[in-house]
Write a structure and sequence with these properties.
16 helices; 543 residues; alpha/beta; five-stranded antiparallel β-sheet
Length: 543
Amino acid sequence: MEKPIINILMVDDRPENLQALEAVLGSSGYQLTKAYSGEEALKWLLKKEFAIILLDVQMPGLDGFETAKLIRARKKSKEIPIIFITALTQTQDYAISGYDAGAIDFLFKPFNPYILKSKIEGFVKIYETKWQLQMQNELLQKQAKQLDEAHSRLEQLVEKRTQELRHTNDSLQKEIVEKQRILQLAQDNEAKYRHLVEDSPVAIILHELHKENWTFINETGMKMLGGLHVQDILSRTLYTFVHPDEHEVVKKRIQRALHGGKVEDNELKLVGLDGEIILAAVTIIPFEYLGNPSVHIVARDITDMKKTEEYISQSEKLSVVGELAAGIAHEIRNPLTSLKGFTQLLDYKDGTDNPYIPIMLEEIDRINTIVSELLLLAKPNEGDFRKVKMTELLQNVVILMNAQANLQNIEIKFHNLVDQEHDYIDGLENKLKQIFINLLKNAMEAMKTGGEININMMIEENLLRIQFCDQGCGISEEHLAKIGQPFFTTKEKGTGLGLMVCKSIIDSHHGYMDIESKVGVGTTITLTFPLCDVYSETELENV
């Protein structure tokens, strides 16, 4: 029995790619047809019968996936094997999209000519087998019509054809086994892709747009949002975890993604199950999942990174301001000394009748106070650092400030939760004392009607933490963001340098300061310092 003509349709918008395919397959006796677009491929399918279609995915106009779906939609061409040839990444979602579109296999550019040729030969054999079966079926029907004329030869013919069918059946069984092997391989690959998604260091979320809840979230995403189990997240709606200020933004970004491709690395505020705000860099990728419009969301927690950037920015500002302040303060004090001396001389000569002289002296003293605070912004010499016992230092400060606190009906309570044998840090005692006095004075000024100031000292992971908790008027969110900036103050006669000086001193001690406040409730300031002999010099610089 003669073999059928093997027509192979090759579809690619790049002529050089079609030439490469033709070079590999041209010597095998196949009839090769080239199409430069999905539309041209569909036209060829109306003219010829093809054994195999080699289809590029990325094409202008109709891409490979859309072309494959249209081929599968036609009764005449829906059984033709389609092999996608693509240069894109081998991701699970990409492969699933290809198989959903109707592919039976993938080849990735640059392809191996021997693999391509082997795959084509395998599918050609299947095609020839089907063609032979079809021809044999037609022959059997013709012979049935001639039964009366050739009854004597019927048994021999049936036996012969039966043997052929058995052989064909054996071949088909082998093909079935091979297909099962390929299916198992695909399932194994899917399991590997799922494993990669689950263990991804970023949150990966699948959301079908016709549903309120998320369809899938990996373990990283679950932990980022504070869930103990995946169902803790999937049982809630999408916007449960989006900050109310961002709801409209998210809706617009999803719609923009659906109409114009993925939306990359947009910063969003998310809300965890515990109510904590999480800053995340979010990428939204549109795709179709089980026939439904969906979005693939990749979220990366950047909360700590933002805090680090803010801390570095503040440190850089303090460093620059400190250097500038030291220079300016020294330049101002020289003429200031002369001004004060001449003003006092005028007062001595003119007596006390001149009302302007006391005002001038008072203002000169005020300038001198500001200059002194500016000088404190310059970083101290670390060579003067020594071990400071923080328990004793804080107790002495509390004793020092208690008298003033009692006059304002304020009680200072010191809660020491540390082992006093290990409460040493490397530092300058006077500078540290200055921080504590400044913070206690600020707290007392904020408590107009009295109350308690609680000082808590504790050790956590080789770090010493000291909290100052007052019951004052609190600080608004708007002002809290500006605290510590040069010359920003909420006090009527403040200079805005107090907390800036504190931050400069804390920074020179390799520590950092956090401020939490609520209007009408009070303010909590937490200082963190590295303990002695715990960190190396390099590690201390990174604390």
